[in-house]
């Protein structure tokens, strides 16, 4: 199959279902990164949000810098830094410094952001995020070319977002709800925009909610109900669905949760490897298995990382 495989998403949250002392989460992260590297994964990904009750990490480049000092080959990525919420010059400088500390192993994913509360708190209009994104990418484009333009990643599924990725020669982290045909169309759109701009298209990645168990049915019965509860809270509280917020649009909320749960890759090692193979055949060369959730205990997470590495990782990267 020959794809790269990493894991995510580390967010440094303390929730009711998985309470933590916040300083300990950051203190222990370099050891987590070292274990992920030792297990053979190619990369580890973090996410960014702010202003939520669980202290979701607002500055993922800082723990990435600490993890870089504890590892030697593991690439460390953001999925995503919310670029329109940042001063792009400052972000460019910080990312360059972290990349230097990581010896070229930073994968900088940047996204639009979608939560009104975050933009409001920063005094920024959410409606202007597209323009701020384009301006920020122009700043990041000024980074020397020897810093690998494909190490900057963008997300999204709208045509404008995919064309933006192509124009800037970025790599793409596609939404996990895309099926094989949707992946192919997205790749074609990105490639066409890159060629039109005189750029080489970057890599094609996808984050997939993932859970593996030697008993595939046991994996589905344990993981999927918990995943549905997770996205009901997240989508209901955070996402804007066709002009209305999730909890005020229950039918749309249920539809979004259904699509997300259906797209998860859950089952036995053979089943999960086969699903990843289908994704790779559609044009994805980088798979990020999301196994870190607030409903997964530290013990369960460690066991999942080990089982996934011993079975699926070997199959998909062979």
UniProtKB/TrEMBL annotation:
<dbReference type="InterPro" id="IPR050766">
    <property type="entry name" value="Bact_Lucif_Oxidored"/>
</dbReference>
<keyword id="KW-0560">Oxidoreductase</keyword>
<dbReference type="InterPro" id="IPR036661">
    <property type="entry name" value="Luciferase-like_sf"/>
</dbReference>
<keyword id="KW-0503">Monooxygenase</keyword>
<dbReference type="InterPro" id="IPR011251">
    <property type="entry name" value="Luciferase-like_dom"/>
</dbReference>
<dbReference type="Pfam" id="PF00296">
    <property type="entry name" value="Bac_luciferase"/>
</dbReference>
<protein>
    <submittedName>
        <fullName>LLM class flavin-dependent oxidoreductase</fullName>
    </submittedName>
</protein>
<feature type="domain" description="Luciferase-like">
    <location>
        <begin position="25"/>
        <end position="286"/>
    </location>
</feature>
């Amino acid at each position: 199959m020959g794809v790269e495989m990493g894991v995510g998403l580390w967010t440094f949250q303390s929730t009711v279902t998985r309470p933590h002392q916040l300083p300990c989460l950051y203190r222990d992260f370099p050891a987590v990164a070292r274990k992920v590297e030792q297990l053979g994964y190619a990369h580890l990904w973090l996410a960014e949000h702010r202003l939520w009750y669980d202290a979701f990490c607002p500055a993922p480049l800082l723990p990435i810098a600490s993890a870089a000092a504890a590892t030697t080959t593991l690439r460390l990525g953001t999925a995503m830094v919310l670029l329109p919420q940042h001063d792009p010059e400052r972000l460019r400088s910080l990312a360059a410094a972290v990349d230097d500390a990581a010896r070229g192993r930073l994968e900088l994913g940047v996204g639009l952001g979608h939560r009104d509360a975050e933009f409001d708190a920063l005094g920024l209009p959410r409606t202007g995020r597209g323009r701020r994104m384009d301006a920020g990418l122009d700043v990041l484009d000024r980074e020397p070319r020897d810093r690998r333009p494909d190490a900057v990643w963008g997300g999204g599924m709208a045509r404008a977002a995919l064309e933006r990725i192509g124009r800037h020669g970025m790599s793409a982290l596609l939404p996990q709800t895309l099926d094989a045909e949707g992946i192919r169309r997205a790749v074609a759109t990105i490639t066409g925009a890159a060629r039109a701009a005189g750029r080489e298209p970057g890599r094609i990645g996808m984050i997939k909610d993932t859970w593996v168990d030697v008993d595939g049915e046991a994996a589905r019965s344990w993981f999927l109900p918990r995943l549905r509860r997770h996205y009901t809270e997240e989508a209901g509280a955070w996402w804007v669905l066709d002009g209305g917020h999730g909890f005020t649009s229950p039918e749309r909320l249920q539809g979004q949760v259904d699509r997300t749960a259906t797209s998860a890759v859950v089952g036995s090692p053979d089943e999960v490897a086969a699903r990843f193979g289908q994704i790779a055949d559609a044009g994805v060369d980088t798979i990020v298995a999301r196994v870190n959730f607030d409903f997964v205990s530290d013990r369960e997470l460690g066991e999942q990382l080990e089982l996934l590495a011993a079975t699926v990782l070997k199959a998909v990267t062979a």
